[in-house]
Amino acid sequence: MKKVNGTLFLLLLCFSISALAQTYDVPRYHFTSKTNFSEFEPEVIKATDWLQRTHWSAKDKKLDAASQFVLDWAQGTPNVTIQLRQSIMDLSDANPQLGFIYIAHYCKYAILHQYEFDKDEASVYALKAVIAKYQMEPGHKYDKDVERLIEMDKDIGLLNWVKDSFSFE
Question: Does residue 5 surpass a pLDDT of 90?
């Protein structure tokens, strides 16, 4: 009986995780003015969380649509400015999806910390998301820059690296 209950529990857990990953719907949007960007902040957070937990192997059209939604929002909103440095771009050369993860999480941090925003902390938050996504994706391509970032996070911490690498601004 315990074995049957355990098996049922695992099946239900798998189905609920699968259902959770598929319940996200990309919002219909048309950004026309600066005033409507804040209305979409909750949707940016939902899209970011969904992109983080959805595997690239899903080959779902929603992956592209959700990434495009976040990118369009990030490019148009007057409230968030993301400076993409070469060191950040290098993290997505082997796995381009990681660039969208960085942008999405930087935006999420900015939305959640509007009144105490710190660009270095936002970068660290986004970089930790990049590391987590890279490590959870079974089909990721090896990337020496991301691997080095993982080691830096263990050794000196990402905040030190961000402050040293981005100090010229």
Answer: no
